[in-house]
Amino acid sequence: MKIAIASGKGGTGKTTVAVNFALALEDVQLFDCDVEEPNCNLFLGFELEPVEEVTCLFPEINPDKCTLCGNCADFCRYNALAALPKKILLFPSLCHGCGGCSFVCPVGAVEEKSRSIGIIEKASSDAPLKFFHGILNIGEAMATMVIKSLLRHIDESKPAIIDSPPGTACPVLAVLGFADYCVLVTESTPFGFHDFLLALKVAKALKVPVGVVLNRDGLGDSRVEDFCRDEGIPILLRIPNDRMIARLYSEGIPFVKEMPEWKEKFEDMFETIKALAFKSTGVQ
């Protein structure tokens, strides 16, 4: 079972929930797919080792063969190629590696080369939790490709907790499209409610069942709670605006380590998710 931990915006406590949830369970995997800012390991402190370099193909124009017809630039929807009167210009960071430019070139002047866009790392085998994360190279835009490479390392025989990027853009779609269940972490503030609705719309479009974790419960108002009740969306867990939880967070310590009563609460949430996910897919 693959459980995505997502949120409509950053700063809602998504990573805190993902890390504590994974540490509270036995024999699970944790994947940090927020490849532009992976920070789960700030709480875990594992020694990491490289697993895979993620590469992307990009075109290289052979000027001796190129007839400057411009087919390649016309085809590219990402504006990675521009046809000038005497040259084809390439902007590698805009290229998505689809290979279409080489396909439409009538004289075979487009050759594809490989370049690194990121890396996959994992915790050492003696770590208490199976943990992987991806890192997108600075300046690169292909987060989705790194995420897909990262998700291929999931062991399908064990539950996987996936820390999703925040927001509703393509990297989030790459994670939610892969998940069996989505936990949306939010807070009852006007901004939290607004971005929660956006993230919920994405999950519904992808037909992924959703439950909610209310973080900093007790602050703000009841608009998220009222909405969930009216829409039949389960609130899986409430994490209060607690001074000790805030202190542990500021010190980079997962609160389940110092507050063992939360381990049972996360275990109960896991059992609820399994029941809801099986029900939504018709599994008995």
Protein structure class: alpha/beta
Average residue pLDDT: 92
Query: Regarding CATH, which class of the largest domain?
Result: Alpha Beta
How many helices? The count is 11
Helix content: 25-40%
| Spatial extent as radius of gyration | 22 Å
Name given to the CATH architecture of the largest domain:
3-Layer(aba) Sandwich
Unreliable segments of 5+ consecutive residues: none
Q: Tell me, what's the shape?
A: elongated
- CATH H-level name of the largest domain... which superfamily? P-loop containing nucleotide triphosphate hydrolases
CATH-assigned fold name of the largest domain: Rossmann fold
Largest sheet: 9 strands, mixed
Number of strands: 11
What pattern of helices and strands is seen along the backbone?
EHEHEHEEHEEHEHEHEHEHHH
Strand order of the largest sheet: 3-6-7-2-8-1-9-10-11
Termini separation comes to: 15 Å
Indicate how many domains the architecture comprises.
2
Strand content: 25-35%
